[in-house]
Amino acid sequence: MSVVNMKASWGSVTSWLFEEVVAAGIDSFYERAVQEVAVEVTDGVKILEVGCGQGQLAVRLAQRLPSCSVIGIDQSPEMIRRAVARSPRLPNLELRRADVMSLPFADDQFAMVLAVASIKHWIDRLRGVQEMLRVLVPGGKMGIVDVDRDCSRARATRFVEKWRHIPPSSIPFLAKYFQSVVAHQSISLDELVGVLTRAGVVGLEARRYADLPFVFARAAKPQGSALAPGGDETPGAGEVDGAAR
């Protein structure tokens, strides 16, 4: 990834900036994600995080759920290198390079598949979601969180204020950058609902975070039936804490 192209490869400079400036300031975001996931899984299941970056979420999941097997994958060798280097040795955690466009796993392997701040980097969002569904067990759950394309400047500002090592005078500039560059290349709530619907998920819920410039969706793989693309119509998308079902 470059600072202007979300689909470009992560280099050593952008990886360092993300780890030291952004990720270091949003521990509460990762903790919230872990808490939401922890109540959704049972002991002994397998969890996959797609686009795990430097392992901030995967490590927390493995620590919080020691009876579960957690695998984090990322297509960037630099991100995986950093993830392995910064991660404690946990027997239930595996970090490896792989691409969501062609996941190196057999069908029906995972009880949960997550993509946090990852979908905006994909070259084909529908294909990525279909791959996530393929490796889920029937009835397994997926969760996707990413920057809201329609986020307001106020939400962008609140998020940027959490970053580390940022002079206060630069916050307005960075908030404008985040809204006009990062968010602009991400996904809206309606678009996310549309992609998941076309992929054939069931039990879809989607909403905006009330306090952050992110959208969130949760869905499941159909039980006992082959996946088939959905139609063009999509359910409505909820504002703030509303839901789309």
Structure description:
The protein has one domain: 3-Layer(aba) Sandwich (Rossmann fold), CATH 3.40.50. The chain has eight helices and seven strands. The radius of gyration is 17 Å and the shape is globular.
For this entry, give a set of tags:
single chain, 245 residues, alpha/beta, Rossmann fold, seven-stranded mixed beta sheet, 7 strands, disordered C terminus
Q: What is the element layout, followed by pairings?
A:
Blueprint: H1 12-22, H2 27-38, E1 46-50, H3 56-64, E2 69-74, H4 77-86, E3 93-97, E4 110-116, H5 125-135, E5 136-147, H6 153-160, H7 171-182, H8 189-199, E6 202-208, E7 214-220
Parallel strand pairs: 1-2, 1-4, 2-3, 4-5
Antiparallel strand pairs: 5-7, 6-7
Helix pairs in contact: 2-3, 5-8, 6-7
Shape: globular
- Count of distinct strands: 7
User: Which CATH architecture?
Assistant: 3-Layer(aba) Sandwich
- As residue ranges, the low-confidence spans are 228-245
Say what the CATH topology is: Rossmann fold
Major β-sheet profile: 7 strands, mixed
- Could you tell me the radius of gyration in angstroms? 17 Å
Q: Overall pLDDT, averaged? A: 87
Neighbour order of strands in the largest sheet: 3-2-1-4-5-7-6
Q: For this structure, what is the CATH homologous superfamily?
A: Vaccinia Virus protein VP39
Order of helices and strands: HHEHEHEEHEHHHEE
Alpha-beta content class: alpha/beta
Q: What is the percent of helical residues?
A: 25-40%
Number of helices: 8
The structural domain count equals: 1
Report how far apart the termini are: 33 Å
